[in-house]
Amino acid sequence: MDDDLLTIGAFAARARLSAKALRLYDRLGLLAPDRVDPATGYRYYRAAQVERARLVALLRQLDMPLARIAEVADAEGDEAAALLAAYWADVEARFAAQRTLAEYLRGRLSGRSSEMYGKFTVETVEVPAQVVLSESRHVLADELPTWIPASLGRLEEAAAGCGGAAGAPYVVYHAEVSTESDGPVEACVPVADEAAARAWAADRGRARQVRLRVEPARRLAYTRITKAQVAQPQILAAFEAVEEWMKREGLAYDGPCREVYFADWDAAGPEDPVCDVAFPVRRDS
Predict the structure, then answer these.
(1) Who is most buried in 50, 226, 233, 269, counting CB within 10 A?
(2) What's the CA gap between 53 and 12, in Å, rounded?
(3) Which pLDDT score is estimated for 88?
(4) 143 and 93 together in one domain
(5) Is 116 within the bounds of a domain?
(6) Residue 95 and residue 66 share a domain
(7) Are 128 and 58 contained in the same domain?
């Protein structure tokens, strides 16, 4: 036996961990013993592994996913510190969003919804029929911030060869999108030249999973929100405010809800208006 090897009990004592924890780390692929006796199955570790064992234990206390623990433990110095900082920034952002959601839910549960909805001004607008290039996908809520700009970017690039965009791009929610429900969601860009758009869709649209369709004329009930309000749960309150207004005005749903993006997202500040949340409506008979 190599004199430098430690039994699992001796190593556990030096690392200030239990043998049970070390067996778990081995099973999870985070810290394998240096040697396993083929006859007895006894695990042996080297003293040099103590630091990694302690680091893994501390990172697990941060609820860090196993794959990210492995990344941090395998990195060194500034790289490891940067990986940890990036993970913790994600955690704090998630906690901040959850705190805001909890405050929003407290307002709903305590019957203060009308106060929250009162922050939004609802209006209506008549939108003529439009020829649009569209792209649909099933996505969960946390995928939307990546998929929406990427999809609209692809469609706007295609629209440039079809006479240019003829209106603001928008996103249609054909079913609920949440952490558990994946839509589908449809990104749309109106185009100016219908003939060119049809030719483009026939030639290259199928390969890019883009289709051309005619969006009928709509009457939209909408409220305008800022870039900061696009985040959850503020945007939920905006949609609900429009729905509450529709009930008061005796208007019925005439199609799926949508977000209309009329501003340069990258150039906009947190308090700049960037988006209309809207429902197609008709007069309830």
Answers:
(1) 233
(2) 9
(3) 93
(4) no
(5) no
(6) no
(7) no
Residue 116: its pLDDT value, please? 66
Which stretches in the chain have pLDDT values below 70?
A: 1-3, 97, 112-116, 204-208, 285
Q: Which residue has the tokens 């839509």?
A: 183
Same domain, 91 and 44: no
CA distance 119 to 115: 7
**Model pTM?**
0.66
- Give CA–CA dist 236/167, Å, rounded: 25
* Same structural domain, 41 and 97: no
Question: Dihedrals φ, ψ of 58, to 5°?
Answer: -70, -40
The whole-angstrom separation of Cα 16 and Cα 53 is: 9
203: Cβ contacts below 8 Å, ≥ 6 apart = none
Cis peptide before 216 (omega within 30 of 0): no
CA distances from 90 to 141, 145, 246, 248 (A): 16, 15, 37, 40
67-113, pLDDT tens digit by residue? Answer: 899 899 889 899 999 999 999 998 887 787 677 777 777 777 777 66
Do 62 and 91 meet the contact criterion of CB atoms below 8 Å apart? Answer: yes
On whether both 107 and 217 belong to a single domain, the answer is no
CA-based nearest residue to 162, from 199, 205, 122: 199
144 in the same domain as 198:
yes
The pLDDT assigned to 215 comes to 93
How far apart CA 22 and CA 40 sit, in angstroms, is 17
